[in-house]
Structure to design on (232 residues):
């Protein structure tokens, strides 16, 4: 069973930097998995932040960036703001057409 | 602008089926795919499958493949997700999400519908 792992929770101070990661149970995450990141405020539909590892979706501030760090995909949020408090999900595309969501990270800004 | 508008909330009995629709506008419908994603209360997003609106090809998650059918009506610019043999754990919000093949051929999710709540009661 393919498992995509994320930190269940992460805390960052206002103005600080948060780096959330996304791992894969059977392999290192690379650009070939086209990692994407989505933000979801509970009770709302998700919003696309990053696709294809590091491309920001339209309208997403440049405080959000995507990368590969070691064997994981990463979402870095710089200058964290109160309204960044959300759930963040990564998605990996497995090349067979299958898509897998991570378990999500709840980000707290305090 | 791209819009995905889903059908309204449903209440179903255990064992029944539900069919949720997603009407698209603002782009060339047949050039993209449509994914369906489930989210049970307080739980993570789960990918269910996609349909290529251009040729009708589908791909389903192993978890749902015996119970889900995704179809598309090009003339109506609408995609449908039908889930059968409903059980209590299917009580969830179901989202449609557009898949863009232009960058990687992987139908990367970009736009999302507003979600449809399906409640399964015994």
């Amino acid at each position: 069973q393919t498992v995509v792992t994320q930190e269940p929770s992460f805390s960052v101070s206002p103005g600080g930097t948060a780096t959330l990661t996304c791992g894969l149970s059977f392999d290192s995450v690379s650009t070939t998995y086209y990692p994407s990141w989505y933000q979801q405020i509970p009770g709302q539909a998700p919003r696309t932040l990053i696709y294809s590892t590091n491309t920001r979706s339209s309208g997403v501030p440049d405080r959000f960036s995507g990368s590969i760090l070691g064997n994981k995909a990463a979402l870095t949020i710089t200058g964290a703001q109160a309204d960044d408090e959300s759930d963040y999900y990564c998605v990996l595309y497995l090349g067979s057409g299958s898509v897998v969501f991570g378990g999500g990270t709840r980000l707290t800004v305090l | 602008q791209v819009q995905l508008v889903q059908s309204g909330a449903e209440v179903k009995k255990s064992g029944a089926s539900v069919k949720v629709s997603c009407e698209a506008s603002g782009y060339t419908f047949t050039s993209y795919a449509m994914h369906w994603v489930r989210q049970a209360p307080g739980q993570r997003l789960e990918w269910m499958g996609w349909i290529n609106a251009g040729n009708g090809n589908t791909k389903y998650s192993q978890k749902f493949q015996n119970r889900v059918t995704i179809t598309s009506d090009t003339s109506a610019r609408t995609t449908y997700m039908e889930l059968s043999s409903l059980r209590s754990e299917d009580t969830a919000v179901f989202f449609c999400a557009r898949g863009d093949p232009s960058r990687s051929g992987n139908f990367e999710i970009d736009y999302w519908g507003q979600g449809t709540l399906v409640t399964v009661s015994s």
About this structure: The two ends of chain B are 41 Å apart (CA to CA). Residues 2 and 27 of chain B are 6 Å apart (CA to CA). The first strand of chain B starts at residue 3 and ends at 6. Chain B touches chain A through 23 residues (CB under 8 Å).
